[in-house]
Amino acid sequence: MMAKGMTQRIGLDMPVMIAFGCIILLLLAGSLYSREFLSPDYLLQQLQVGAFLGIIASGAMMVILLGHIDLSIPWTVTLGAMMATALGGWIGEPGVWLAIPFGISCGALIGVLNGLGVAYLRLPSMIFTLGMNAVVQGLMVLHTGGFAPQDHATDAMHFLAVKRTIFGIPNALFVWALVGIIVILILRRTAFGRAVYAIGNRESVAYLSGINTNGVLIGCFAFCGACAAFAGVLLAGYSTKAYQAMGDAYLLPAIAAVVLGGTNILGGRGNYLGTIAGVILITLLQSILSVMQMPEAGRQVIYGAVIISMLLLYGRGARTRS
Amino acid sequence: MADRKPLLELKGVSKRYGGIAALTDVDFTAYAGEIHAVLGENGAGKSTLIKIASGVTDASDGEVLVNGTPHRFRSPTDAMKAGVVCVFQELSLLPDMTVADNLSMAGTPTRGGFIDHKAQRARAIELLKRVGCEDVHPLELVKNLPLSRRQMVEIAKALAKKPKLLILDEATSALTAKDVERIYVIIRELRAEGVGILYVSHRMHEIEALADVATVFRNGRKIETFRKGERSVRDIIQMMIGREVTHHYPPKPPYQDNREPALAVSNLNWGRELSDISFAAGKGEIVGLGGLDGQGQRELLLALFGVLKGVEGAVTVDGERLSLTGPRPAMDAKLPLALIPEDRKVEGLMLPMSVRDNLTLASLQQMRSGLGIDSAKEAAAVTAMVDRLQIKAPDVAAPVATLSGGNQQKVVLAKWLMTEPGIILLNDPTRGIDVGTKQEIYRLLRNLAAEGRTIIFYSTDYAELIGCCDKVLILYGGRITRELKGEECTEHNLVASALNVETVPEKAA
Amino acid sequence: MSDWRYHFSHNLGTLTAVGLFVLMFGIYIGNHEAGLNPAVATTAANKAVLLALVAMAQTLPVLTRGLDLSVGMIFVMANCLASAIVVGTIGQGLAGCIAVLFMGLAAGFINGAIVVYGRLQPIITTLATGAIYYGIALWIRPSPGGDVQYDIADFVTGQLFGTVPTSLVVLLVVVLVIWIPYRSSVLGRGAYAVGSNEQAAYMSGVPVDRAKIAAYALGGLIAALGGLILTFNTYSGEASAAIGGTYTLNSIAAVVIGGTSLFGGWGSAIGSIFGAFVLRTIEDLLFVFDLPPLWQPLFQGVVLLVAISLGAIRVFRIRNRLELFT
User: Fold this and answer.
1) Residue C83: which CATH number?
2) What one-character-per-residue DSSP string does B56-69 give?
3) What is the pLDDT of residues A288-314, one digit of tens each?
4) Which residues have CB under 8 Å from A250's CB, separation 6+?
């Protein structure tokens, strides 16, 4: 009984344990394939790449916990990258300092608009955010003239995304850890976090309990947009430039990471530990597939198949719930 | 009576939902060519009986026979094939489709595999004529029809299936007097054709006018089956109410007319559902809302809690005008309001979440420290409330879904008591819970009233209203038709005024 | 007889889309330097028919209160497959066409089966299966290219009797051979019933599961036909996530413009066809009115978002706020 309480406290429920189990299997499989796979250096490198996905997944998780989804992530990532790199060109010197906050704010703004559509117009988030994605894409095409932008990432962006300042641990991992701690604190320690779970379980109950459900919806979408844009900022730092469609490769992995970590796609259930597991799982999966030189085609099929099978597995829980 | 053929037989049928028995060991027989009235209070088991007979749900135990052969209906379609057709209370019509489409949704006339629109239309016209709805165009969308016409279409739809046994569940509740007459004629015609009819209604005069046989249910059990004229109306009501013993209720203080006002409602209107509602409730008073099911009681509670849009009229709480724009303003009123909702699974609880999370959801504001929640304070408040209401849970971290129905309802009550409400709105809080917990709730309500809180209490159980309330407002068609004060709250008065039958108010002996 | 009044109001959404299209197309032709001639019409039709088919495909699941986010990917997958197998003699090419259509049907069937038997949300299901179909498209055609049977291609993208664009005739045939029979079949009407109120449909004896699966499967088939015709237009296949995504999004917008409710139970694939035509004509109008090309994606995005937002009208009719959450 005590042990069960313990595992619940830290969020080690069944799906999370399955996910961690899969991680160990993947590590074993990878080490059979290449001796390099288990070396700390290689693993840190993977985690550094995983950090970008981790930040996006953090925001996606907040929205999924509500029982919604944000499909505007791809171009919000690109927006963050392009706005942060472009600011210097617009306002000169101060742009160097404001670049990162500016990029994040642009993403948050898109998130707020998504939230408004979902909360007040009560449109299905899938469809509304899909439309928003197209609008942001249009804005970015307009901004860049359809070409790869010439602006470069600032030093600060480069520093956060690529450098290793302490003990050779990539700074990007610290950034992810920071975002993660914020999410954990919000979800576990604040009334807002409770409201997120409550809405995901039953919005009518939350509403009748006096919770400003529209405010929470908007807040979560804003957070998701901010996270996506922040990841975009870091990705620009990582590759020194922003480029068209740079976020396209992140939508499905981000949703997959959240879902594989045991967060219910219908909302209301899930914890951040699971999302961490999901992100690592996806990152390792990607890295193994690339070590195996699996073409993009195979990766797509595997992503889709993995998501469907995991959902079918967790779906049983959801059914007994309703 | 030699030709009485048993059409539908239930033998030892029981049905349990979760741990709660909705129907216990019922033997029931309906014959061809007879109108069989099914009587009982809300929650007596009538609707469960109907659901089993019509294939909506499956019996937990026992046997269902149609024409002597055992059947297990897996869906309404199965039942339909066996000739059992039900006109459901909650309409089973498809709002976005035409009347003609709806009327032949099952047994669609086809030609070469495609829907034969001409035949379908001819059939619709014939059926509409039969139920006296010539004014309804077959191409009209169901959602554009008024409720009374929709109900007639629902009946026509059942007739289209050529039933051997027709079940009418409160089928006349929204009909005009003229339509009801029409239905009587049809039912008698069907009887003459040898169709068996199960007729569920709360309207005693309808039963008198129609039924050949009647069966009374109470608390999920069959009480008695008798033929027309064997029992008086008074006897029947007595059978329905049963010998609910009044000492189960905590003692009531004598009725006081001059209480300090807490809640005043004047000229409240909401569409057709609420008309010109005015009443006042004092501090420490328990005000019951009575009447038949669905006469606007739920809407009234929702309106007071700010959930309904476009409510007209004024609500004042302790002299201050209340803004009816949402739960938050109601909860922040001078005397905070709390609403214990009707359906605890949809509106009251988040079943997969812990007892603790459910308990504190409405009162988290009081547990803030800085940006976060003070978990020590929260834990203390939760423990105190669990003790106070004696909520039986293995652990406050356990999902509330693992609790029994009674304890779940206590969690809902406790959740709202944590907000320190001055006015408590209760929407049928004892439905589907065990007797012991019911009594605990009655005592709790009386204690809360004694502390000076105002309680507005809607219940579908008349005995409860009598046992708990200082005064009872009877609603009929969205209006308050009668106010019964203190000793005027008797079974007879409640039932009579709920049915909107004029009688002289009777004083309790 | 006032039947016409009912038929009119039942088809108001479709008629509005038709009216909008006629108006916009009139403006377009009026401002086009060459005016309306077979060549202009054929070019316009060949482009518009693609989206019209994908929009029809989207309509079917939407009518059941579902959604298919994989239509664009089925479209792309069919394009890639066609560029690989619709080759050789005319006979071989036609056999290839049938194989492509069959694959679309299978893809749609899988969507429907997962939604019905796995009880997953249609949206997330089709997002994931969309990835799978895209992966298959990439596997078939890792880089753009391929070939197509020229005789069939030129026939389908050309003109009949030198005047009527053949692709429009193909679309008409799809309407007559697939949509109209479907609409007046028990299963098709069941789809409407399920979208209108699933519980009531079940109570009324509608085969709910079959109606849903059929809607997704048929949607897959029509989307694949779109992909096939794309191949005839381009003589090649390309596994492009961008094309798939754009078609999916535009299909939803076309459905909404065509008067079909995203909450199911109401609408028509014919409305969606004209919704698609309207969207295509907007593009052409942007072109004739010299809107800078860079503004076009933004303008289209905004039009889409506005079209989607039309679904919010429901919110203003709600009187009980608890109904907002259902």
Assistant:
1) 1.10.3470
2) SS--SEEEEEETTE
3) 888 788 888 898 898 889 888 877 876
4) A52, A53, A56, A73, A74, A77, A228, A231
**A206–B contact, CB cutoff 8 A:** yes
Residue listed under structure tokens 């908007």: A218
* Number of other CB atoms surrounding residue C118 within 10 Å: 15
pLDDT of residue A3: 45
Domains: count for chain C: 1
Does the CB of B137 have a partner CB in chain C at under 8 Å? yes
Instruction: Please identify among residues 173-192 of chain C the ones whose CB lies closer than 8 Å to any CB of chain B.
Output: 181, 184-186, 189, 192
- For residue A186, what are the CA distances in angstroms to A59, A260, A276, B361, C24? 12, 21, 16, 15, 51
Q: Which token pair is A61? A: 């998780």
Q: Is the pLDDT of residue C193 over 50?
A: yes
What's CA A43's distance to the chain center, in Å?
20
- In chain B, the N- to C-terminal Cα span, in Å, equals 44
Q: Does A241 touch chain B (CB under 8 A)?
A: no
Contacts of B270 in chain C (CB under 8 A): 319
Assess if residue C325 is contained within a domain.
Answer: no
Cα distances (Å, whole numbers) of residue C1 to B44, B116, B122, C6, C7:
49, 20, 14, 10, 12
Alpha carbon distance C192, B63 (integer Å): 36
Interchain contact A243–B (C-beta under 8 A): no
> What's the pLDDT tens digit per position in C244-274?
988 998 898 899 889 888 888 889 999 999 9
CATH fold of B1-83+163-243: Rossmann fold (3.40.50)
Domains B1-83+163-243 and B281-498 share a fold: yes
- H/E stretch holding B305 reads none
Give the domain range for residue C80. Answer: 37-305
Mean pLDDT of B252-258: 84
Give the residues across from B71 on adjacent strands.
B64
CB C229 within 8 A of CB C156: yes
CA C143 to chain centre: 25
- The pLDDT confidence band at residue A102, using thresholds 50, 70 and 90, is very high
SS (H, E, C) B253-302: CCCCCCCCEEEEEEEEEECCCEEEEEEEEECCCEEEEECCCCCCHHHHHH
* The listed CATH number (3.50.50.60, 3.40.50.1000, 3.40.50.300, 3.30.390.10) that belongs to domain B281-498: 3.40.50.300
The SS3 call for residue B44 is coil
ipTM: 0.83
Contact call for residues B5 and B169 (beta carbons, < 8 A): no
pTM for the predicted model, two decimal places? 0.81
How far apart are the CA of B237 and the nearest CA of chain A, in angstroms? 37
C193/B94 touch (CB, cutoff 8 Å), yes or no: yes
Amino acid identity for residue B82 in this structure = A
> Is the CB of B339 inside 8 Å of chain A's CB atoms?
yes
Query: Encoding tokens for residue A252?
Result: 């499905």
What is the domain partition of chain B in residue ranges? 1-83+163-243, 96-161, 281-498
| Amino acid code (one letter) for B407 | N
Please tell me which chains touch A, using 3 or more CB pairs under 8 Å as the contact test.
B, C
Q: Do C193 and B97 touch (CB under 8 A)?
A: yes
Average pLDDT over residues B94-102: 90
- Please give the structure tokens belonging to residue C294: 């860079």
For chain A, domain boundaries: 50-249+264-270
